[in-house]
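Hi U.,

Before I forget, here's the chain from the pilot set. I'm dumping it here mostly so it's searchable later in email.
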Amino acid sequence: MKRIAVIVGSIRANAFSLQTAKALIAAAPKDRSFEFEVVEIAQLPLYNQDSDAASPEVYTAFRAKIAAFDAVLFVTPEHNRSFPAALKNALDVGSRPWGKNVWSGKPGAVASISIGGISGFGANHHLRQVLSFLNVPVMAQPEFYLGSVMAVFDESGAVKDQASTSFFSSFMVAYCDWVEKLTA
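Structure:
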């Protein structure tokens, strides 16, 4: 069983990125042994290096939780041509203290969304840059950009159309292949 942490960049209740994460999990191949879990990041206080000597329990628990996963899927909105501060904070908390990076070596993928037409391109590539430094091998293809996200989901959070469902499914098949390849 491969355990995948799903990190949602937005901490807003019922965020489009959370809806997207749930749709991606639902689109994962059912014939493989994968378990997905959305890992909350809103509870993490702002990272401060002064706490490295005696980390708050919430940091310790988060680091232990991430360390137990085989891979990580990031689903993020775009804020000001980058990814949200809450996601950056989670990355910082998990990568510290220096030399104890819990993200290192975990196969990753980035799905970015936006309400506009650029589809979170800036957030996607900025996040990939940070993940590269954290030694997260990020799946290069297929890329996942979802623009005009509010048109993709109905009022209940379900995907409205078959084209989007197929896109989500093909991305998740490729991601599961990526995880299997790197964790074999």
